[in-house]
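Researcher: First entry.
Model:
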Amino acid sequence: MLAKEKLERINILAKKAKDVGLTDNEKEEQKKLRQEYLNNVRSSFKNQFKGMTVIDPEGKDVTPQKVRDLQDRNKKH
């Protein structure tokens, strides 16, 4: 999870960008914070998939192969 302070800073920079614009340093900071946020979201989403199992109405495991491959790679590490 991204620190609360970093999320607040992302929002402050976004508001300032709309209102008055950002300096070059602030643009670079915003870019880095956004990238860190996206990496965090992707990682969280991937972790959710690692624990996912899909069961059809007949009770059969129909988990997609890509998800199974991800789970297998996770078990090996």
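Researcher: Second entry.
Model:
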Amino acid sequence: MKKLPPLLVYSVLRLLAFLVPLAIMWFFFPIFREFWWMAALFAALIGMSISLLFLRAPLSATSRALYEKRNRHDADEDVEDSATDEE
């Protein structure tokens, strides 16, 4: 089975860290149905806390993948530059 890109994994986990607390507050606390903006604010704070505490490994993998992709692009430019210099 093909491995999923780290950016996709991290993005989905961050969305879940926001949507799950939002759904819990929306369905189990009736006051948040009236004050939906407060539920969204609290869900954002809870999601940010969850991501800081539990999503360090996916964040590191995402950062590493982006760094490698950026450096690989620079290496390709170096190869192209050396090829044009030889001509």
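Model: Note on the second entry: The chain has a mean pLDDT of 89.
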